[in-house]
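Q: Given only this backbone (94 positions), what sequence would you predict?
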Protein backbone atom coordinates (compact mmCIF):
# COMPACT_ATOMS: atom_id res chain seq x y z
CA UNK A 1 0.00 0.00 0.00
CA UNK A 2 2.78 2.41 0.86
CA UNK A 3 4.41 1.91 -2.55
CA UNK A 4 1.21 2.77 -4.39
CA UNK A 5 0.59 5.83 -2.25
CA UNK A 6 4.14 7.21 -2.08
CA UNK A 7 5.48 6.20 -5.48
CA UNK A 8 2.68 8.00 -7.28
CA UNK A 9 3.64 11.23 -5.48
CA UNK A 10 7.33 10.61 -6.20
CA UNK A 11 6.43 10.13 -9.86
CA UNK A 12 5.24 13.75 -9.98
CA UNK A 13 8.63 14.83 -8.62
CA UNK A 14 10.66 12.39 -10.70
CA UNK A 15 9.20 13.43 -14.05
CA UNK A 16 10.38 17.08 -14.00
CA UNK A 17 13.74 16.12 -12.50
CA UNK A 18 14.52 13.65 -15.27
CA UNK A 19 12.54 15.13 -18.17
CA UNK A 20 14.63 16.42 -21.07
CA UNK A 21 12.36 19.44 -21.71
CA UNK A 22 13.57 23.01 -21.30
CA UNK A 23 11.14 24.25 -18.68
CA UNK A 24 12.76 22.55 -15.66
CA UNK A 25 16.45 22.93 -16.64
CA UNK A 26 17.10 25.12 -13.59
CA UNK A 27 15.75 22.43 -11.24
CA UNK A 28 17.71 19.58 -12.82
CA UNK A 29 20.86 21.66 -12.51
CA UNK A 30 20.32 22.00 -8.77
CA UNK A 31 19.38 18.41 -7.99
CA UNK A 32 21.07 16.05 -10.47
CA UNK A 33 19.00 13.17 -9.04
CA UNK A 34 20.23 10.64 -11.56
CA UNK A 35 23.69 10.91 -9.95
CA UNK A 36 22.82 11.89 -6.37
CA UNK A 37 19.89 9.47 -5.89
CA UNK A 38 20.30 6.60 -8.37
CA UNK A 39 18.47 4.11 -6.12
CA UNK A 40 15.49 6.43 -5.83
CA UNK A 41 15.44 6.91 -9.62
CA UNK A 42 15.60 3.16 -10.19
CA UNK A 43 12.72 2.61 -7.73
CA UNK A 44 10.49 5.18 -9.42
CA UNK A 45 11.39 3.87 -12.88
CA UNK A 46 10.39 0.34 -11.82
CA UNK A 47 7.10 1.67 -10.47
CA UNK A 48 6.45 3.66 -13.66
CA UNK A 49 7.16 0.59 -15.81
CA UNK A 50 4.85 -1.75 -13.87
CA UNK A 51 2.42 -3.32 -16.34
CA UNK A 52 -0.69 -2.31 -14.40
CA UNK A 53 0.50 1.18 -13.47
CA UNK A 54 2.41 2.29 -16.59
CA UNK A 55 -0.60 3.90 -18.27
CA UNK A 56 -1.19 6.11 -15.19
CA UNK A 57 2.35 7.53 -14.86
CA UNK A 58 2.97 11.28 -15.00
CA UNK A 59 3.50 12.03 -18.68
CA UNK A 60 6.27 14.15 -20.21
CA UNK A 61 3.67 16.36 -21.89
CA UNK A 62 1.95 16.96 -18.53
CA UNK A 63 5.30 17.94 -17.01
CA UNK A 64 5.94 20.43 -19.79
CA UNK A 65 2.42 21.91 -19.75
CA UNK A 66 2.42 22.25 -15.95
CA UNK A 67 5.92 23.76 -16.06
CA UNK A 68 4.89 26.43 -18.54
CA UNK A 69 1.80 27.21 -16.47
CA UNK A 70 3.84 27.36 -13.24
CA UNK A 71 6.52 29.60 -14.73
CA UNK A 72 3.94 32.26 -15.52
CA UNK A 73 2.11 31.97 -12.21
CA UNK A 74 2.23 34.80 -9.62
CA UNK A 75 5.01 34.03 -7.12
CA UNK A 76 2.81 34.76 -4.08
CA UNK A 77 0.20 32.12 -5.04
CA UNK A 78 0.42 28.34 -4.97
CA UNK A 79 0.20 26.86 -8.47
CA UNK A 80 -1.49 23.49 -8.23
CA UNK A 81 -1.77 20.99 -11.04
CA UNK A 82 -4.92 21.72 -13.03
CA UNK A 83 -7.18 19.34 -14.92
CA UNK A 84 -7.01 21.78 -17.82
CA UNK A 85 -3.25 21.16 -17.97
CA UNK A 86 -3.84 17.41 -18.17
CA UNK A 87 -6.43 17.67 -20.93
CA UNK A 88 -5.34 15.58 -23.90
CA UNK A 89 -2.14 14.36 -22.20
CA UNK A 90 -3.20 10.75 -21.78
CA UNK A 91 -4.45 10.53 -25.36
CA UNK A 92 -1.23 12.03 -26.76
CA UNK A 93 1.23 9.61 -25.14
CA UNK A 94 0.86 5.83 -24.93
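A: Predicted residues:
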Amino acid sequence: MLDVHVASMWDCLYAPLTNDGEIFNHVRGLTDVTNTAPNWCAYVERFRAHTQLHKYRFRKLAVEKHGVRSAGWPKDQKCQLSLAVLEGVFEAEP
